[in-house]
């Protein structure tokens, strides 16, 4: 089982590829893998302050669309929201 971190940037789902500096790419291939949601959450908390270092690629709307995606044998078996908006936001 692998856990990935996903967000929406410029209307496209993208996956975390690096931790520092933060880098996102639109494809899950090559995405940074975590062994658990707890590990992914801990790392995201650690790099949280660096999320906006590149304003062209990441904005406040992206911040509220970060999710942890758990995949087992190629199937999504769970999703957990990292941060939430005050309203319902079904983004994919």
Question: Features of this protein?
Answer:
92 residues, 5-stranded antiparallel sheet, 2 helices, 5 strands, 34% strand
How does this model look, in words?
With 92 residues, this protein is an alpha+beta fold. The protein has one domain (2-81). 16% of the residues lie in helices and 34% in strands. The protein has helices spanning 37-47, 60-63; strands at residues 2-9, 12-18, 23-25, 67-72, 75-81. A 5-stranded antiparallel β-sheet has the order 3-2-1-4-5. The two termini are 21 Å apart.
Fold blueprint:
Blueprint: E1 2-9, E2 12-18, E3 23-25, H1 37-47, H2 60-63, E4 67-72, E5 75-81
DSSP E strands, number: 5
The residue fraction in helices comes out at: 10-25%
Which structural class best describes the helix and strand composition? alpha+beta
Spell out the helices and strands N to C: EEEHHEE
Shape: globular
Between the first and last Cα atoms, what is the distance in angstroms? 21 Å
Average residue pLDDT = 82
User: Low-confidence parts lasting 5 or more residues at pLDDT below 50?
Assistant: none
**Percentage of residues in DSSP E strands:** 25-35%
Strand order of the largest sheet: 3-2-1-4-5
The number of domains = 1
Rg, Cα atoms, Å:
12 Å
Biggest sheet: strands, sense, closure?
5 strands, antiparallel
Number of helices: 2
